[in-house]
Design a protein that fits this description.
The complex is a heterodimer of chains A (about 400) and B (about 600). Chain A is built from seven helices and 40 strands. Chain A is of the alpha/beta class and about 400 residues long. Chain A has two domains: about 210 residues, Spore Coat Polysaccharide Biosynthesis Protein SpsA, Chain A (Alpha-Beta Complex); about 150 residues, UDP N-Acetylglucosamine Acyltransferase, domain 1, CATH 2.160.10. In chain A, strand 31 and strand 32 form a beta hairpin. Chain B folds into three domains: about 240 residues, Glutamine Phosphoribosylpyrophosphate, subunit 1, domain 1 (4-Layer Sandwich); about 190 residues, Glucose-6-phosphate isomerase like protein, domain 1 (Rossmann fold, 3-Layer(aba) Sandwich); about 160 residues, 3-Layer(aba) Sandwich (Rossmann fold). Helices cover about 35% and strands about 20% of the residues of chain B. Chain B contains 17 helices and 26 strands. Classes of the chains: A alpha/beta (about 400), B alpha/beta (about 600).
């Protein structure tokens, strides 16, 4: 059974990544300086000739970005109107898929060979197949127990620490999986793919494939910094490598006197002015402007953002089209970050600035500040804590 | 506009190849379609309506042949009926011809042929061609000579392809109407546009006016191109790099909304590698040292509205500039002096624009084409070409290509004139992709469209840079909703049209910035508000237009030039959603064609 189709689940918002997901779903957030979903597709294009993308939340942003094909592979979009779980998402592809398929999430950066391993195992035996990774800490994931090549137990977010393997969320199935999902009972209105797999496991076999390699996930906004670090460390970024670890797109303009400290990646159409210092661990998305003498370290600056002269950004995550006026300061973490009622102590986070935040000049951001989309920060303001969508903050 | 497809060397797949090609030409707009295959006899099938009607008709037929031609027709002579659909036959049904363009002397030829005893079945100008070929064969001419003599008799514009029973060749000729050959490994194709055969080959030979081609299923080489006198030409084989997959709908209901959503990406492509904000410079390949002392723009339809914007940009830089409707320019050209003549045409094949450019060249002007299609006639015939790089646009109503035209014209003005605010303009242009995305992310156009779907008509007003936007907003509304719409310079409203303004005619007022133009437009908004017309303000909130408006379509605040691009996106969405509410054929509006290749 040859696998030539992939189904990528990209319909969920990723609510824990708010406020960055205000205008786009989690798969469109940046891993270093490209959308996570591009990395997912990159891992697939050599293996399959068609990718079915299940879209839902803010689907225009996925369709508008990728269009009808990616690197020569056809993209077919199907819509999940309401996000009712991973099984429900996969079920939306039923009408357009009647062949064996590889199934994976669109919000995780993975290595190509993880896909290859799953597909190879499935093609040789034909049983439903799941990739399995070793992790020291399994409590945030679906934990797995294996017997030989079989998965014999699957527990979501286990309380005990006896597990050391997790479900990597990359599967290969024959089209009979759709019937199995349809026959699974909904729990609280939702249909999780893992529920179906537990049922399948009781009747038949689920093949587990041990694998390793890059597999990184962002749960909270500051995780995007760690994702960027991992991607940069592995050099999985586009652009000409001008020096070891210094990647600059051919369509970017960097002033001769700017200093790029590896690892760093500068996307297409960027302009970096005289005396700017970027890096280490800095990713500039496409069409970012960094004006003269700005300093940026360990930060992800997403597309179309503009950092004006003399600004300093450390441990910062920006959304798209963020404007930071001259002399803006994000001095960096660590800090206790408050998200809703939960407090995450001692996170290495300078600030998260969501899409289209405008900070007039000379503003500073206390460590751990979260700024909502389109908020307006006046000159000289010291911003701290959580600032809501569209808020006007004046001194 | 009409589309031609032809194929030799596809064996049993000839018919499938032709029908596939026709479906790829659908975007040009059409009202009937047909195919003819040649073997021992001519097998023909043609139908009025969509290509699906033809497919349905073909189910009960078995057409075969080593070579074949097909056609999608957009009516110029005679209504869309089965009879008027192409291909057309001679009296004996042994010669089949498809044709794009207009044969200007067809009436005299038809009279001559009728009195010689020929019987005509259609109202089309095309039908004279097979009968002329029939005459040649009856006079004992060899087939190729008979076709050449027939083509020598006709005047006007044409791309023609003909097949004859018992002969596995296709004969083709062009004059003022596009025709391109596709060269495969064992097959050769012929079409009005590359997408028709792009799935089979990426190697192409562009035919020039006056050239004649013979494609053969069995001869070696499989194609031959000659000039009007029959001298063999050594034609260059080009490679096209369009991805055939780029023409899918990407999960949208219509190509138009897909293309509207693609605009941030298209505009990035247009700017890529061409602007440098740090040094406030623009670098456009191919323009050399161009620094015009005057500019005349020629264009039609949406491209004309882009040309109006372009003329404003040059005027702003102190260079006298005007925009002309190309069809008017061609028949009554103004004194050209040493002006640069700029043709704006998405396809590069718009017959009216090509005619105006040719007229300008005849008068000694330098010419420049602003176009989306590399290798198009306009690009090849002009001294310079500036590509807008929007990617293929399939929806008949232009959307992303208009935005890209505006951006490209800004680059043209920046690159060929000197201005003190170049850095600000470049910064604003670099922000256009994200500003357009901001409009797409939060537009209220769908709700507003729903509210005013039953209106009697729509008016659009704007001043200065927003004047062309008002005209384009109205054109888009007309094209896809089939409702009356009119766009004005806002100051013109009170000079007549105000009489038509009622509570059932919503007025879209495009007001950005807070300069004199904005203040005066707000005055015009008050005029219509006083007549109870619902007002939809497209605004960045800088003026107090919102105070007099019933609804607001918001655009980000930016440079006045870039504001035109953003405001237009809101109007595209408004037209799209009204048309969608009305259930219109948005991608293929009635009577309209994508690129108008007849004058």
């Amino acid at each position: 059974m040859n696998v030539s189709t992939a189904v990528v689940l990209a319909a969920g918002e990723g609510t824990r990544l708010r406020p960055l997901t205000h205008n786009r779903p989690k798969p469109m957030l940046p891993a270093a300086n490209r959308p996570i979903l591009e990395y997912v597709f990159d891992a697939l294009v050599d293996t399959v000739d068609r990718i079915v993308v299940v879209v839902g939340y803010k689907h225009d942003r996925v369709q508008g970005h990728f269009g009808p094909s990616y690197r020569g592979v056809d993209l077919t979009y199907v819509h999940q109107e309401k996000q009712l779980g991973s099984g429900h998402a996969l079920l939306q592809a039923r009408d357009v898929v009647d062949e064996p398929m590889v199934v994976l999430n669109g919000d995780r950066v993975i290595d190509t060979h993880i896909v290859d391993d799953v597909v190879a195992a499935f093609e040789s035996e034909g049983d439903p197949t799941m990739s399995v990774l070793e992790r020291p800490e399994t409590s945030q994931y679906g934990a797995v127990t294996m017997h030989g090549d079989d998965v014999v137990e699957l527990v979501e977010k286990p309380d005990s620490d006896e597990y050391r393997l997790i479900n990597a969320g990359i599967y290969a199935f024959s089209p009979t999986i759709f019937e199995a999902i349809a026959a699974t009972d909904r729990e609280a209105g939702e249909l999780a793919l893992t529920e179906t797999l537990v049922e399948v496991m009781e009747r038949d076999r689920i093949r587990g494939v041990r694998t390793e390699g890059m597999w990184v996930d962002a749960t909270y906004p500051w995780d995007l910094l760690a994702v960027a670090e991992e991607v940069l460390a592995r050099g999985h970024v586009d652009g000409e490598e001008r020096a070891e670890g210094v990647h600059v797109d051919p369509d970017a303009i960097v002033h001769d006197s700017a200093v790029l400290q590896p690892p760093v990646v500068v996307g297409p159409d960027c302009e970096v002015g005289a005396g700017a210092v970027l890096g280490p661990d800095v990713a500039l998305g496409q069409n970012v402007t960094v004006a003269a003498n700005a300093t940026i370290r360990r930060s992800v600056i997403d597309a179309d953002s503009r950092v004006e002269a003399g600004s300093t950004l450390i441990d910062a995550v920006t959304g798209q089209d963020v404007f930071l006026g001259a002399g803006s300061t994000v001095p960096g973490g660590p800090a206790d970050v408050r998200v809703g009622r939960e407090v995450f102590p001692d996170q290495r986070l300078g600030a998260v600035l969501a899409d289209r935040v405008v900070a007039e000049g000379d503003a500073s951001f206390s460590p751990g500040t979260l700024v909502g989309p389109r908020a307006h920060i006046g000159t000289g303001v010291n911003a701290r804590g959580a600032i809501g969508e569209g808020a006007e903050v004046v001194r | 506009m009409c589309g031609i497809i032809g194929a030799v060397g596809r064996g049993d797949e000839t018919l499938d190849t032709l029908v596939h090609g026709l479906s790829k030409l659908e975007y040009r707009g059409y009202d009937s379609a047909g195919v003819a295959l040649t073997g021992d006899r001519i097998d023909l099938c043609k139908k009025a309506g969509e290509i699906d009607e033809l497919r349905e008709a073909l189910k009960s037929r078995s057409l075969s042949g080593a070579a074949g031609i097909g056609h999608t027709r957009w009516s110029t002579h005679g209504p869309p009926t089965d009879e008027n659909a192409h291909p057309h036959l001679d009296c004996n049904g042994e010669i089949a011809v498809v044709h794009n363009g207009i044969i200007e002397n067809y009436q005299s030829l038809r009279d001559e042929l009728v009195s010689a005893g020929h019987t005509f079945h259609s109202d089309t100008d095309t039908e004279v061609v097979p009968h002329l070929i029939e005459e040649g064969l009856a006079d004992g001419l060899e087939t190729e000579m008979a076709v050449r003599r027939a083509i020598g008799r006709i005047e006007g514009s044409y791309a023609i392809a003909a097949v004859v029973a018992g002969d596995d060749r296709i004969f083709a000729a062009r004059h003022d109407s596009p025709l391109v050959l596709g060269v495969g490994d064992d097959a050769v194709f012929l079409a009005s546009d590359v997408p028709a055969f792009r799935d089979f080959t990426d190697r192409v030979v562009y035919l020039e006016d006056g050239e004649f081609a013979v494609l053969s299923a069995s001869a070696d080489p499989q194609y031959r191109v000659t000039d009007a006198e029959g001298n063999e030409l050594d034609k260059a084989v080009d490679t096209v790099d369009w991805d055939p997959e780029e023409t899918g709908k990407s999960g949208y209901d219509h190509y138009m909304i897909k293309e509207i959503n693609e605009q941030p990406r298209a505009i990035r492509q247009c700017l890529r590698g061409r602007v440098d904000e740090l040094s406030a410079s623009v670098d456009i390949e191919d323009l050399g040292d161009l620094s015009p002392t005057g500019v005349q723009f020629v264009a039609c339809g949406t491209s004309y509205h882009a040309a109006l914007h372009g003329a404003q940009l040059f005027q702003q830089a102190g260079v006298p500039a005007q925009a002309f409707l190309a069809h008017e320019y061609a028949i009554s050209p103004p004194p050209v002096g040493d002006a640069l003549v700029v043709g704006v045409t998405q396809s590069g094949e718009t017959a009216d624009t090509l005619a105006a450019l040719r007229e300008a060249r005849k008068r000694g002007a330098r010419t420049l084409a602003v176009t989306n299609v590399v290798g198009s006639t306009a690009a090849r015939e002009c001294d310079h070409a500036l590509y807008i790089r929007a990617g293929p646009e399939i929806g008949v109503a232009a959307s992303k290509t208009f935005s890209s035209q505006l951006v490209a014209l800004n680059l043209l003005a920046l690159g060929t004139t000197s201005s003190s605010d170049a850095r600000e303009v470049i910064a604003a242009l670099r922000e256009v992709p994200s500003d357009v995305q901001a409009v797409l992310d939060s537009s209220q156009a769908e709700e507003i469209a729903r509210e005013y779907v039953d209106a009697d008509g729509y008016f659009f007003i704007g001043r200065r840079y927003q004047h062309p936007v008002a005209l384009e907003g109205a054109l888009k509304m007309k094209e896809i909703t089939y409702k009356h719409a009119e766009g004005f310079a806002a100051g013109e409203l009170k000079h007549g049209t105000l009489a038509l303004v009622t509570e059932d005619t919503p007025v879209f007022a495009v007001v950005t910035g807070d300069d004199e133009a904005a203040t005066k437009t707000v005055g015009n908004v008050k005029e219509v508000e006083a007549r109870d017309a619902p007002v939809i303000a497209v605004t960045d909130g800088e003026s107090d237009a919102e105070r007099y408006a019933d609804h607001v379509l918001e655009v980000p605040e930016t440079h006045p030039r870039a504001a035109a691009i953003l405001a237009n996106v809101q109007l595209q969405l408004a037209a799209y959603h009204v048309a969608n509410e009305l259930g219109r054929s948005i991608d293929k509006p009635r009577n309209l064609a994508k690129s108008v290749t007849v004058e």
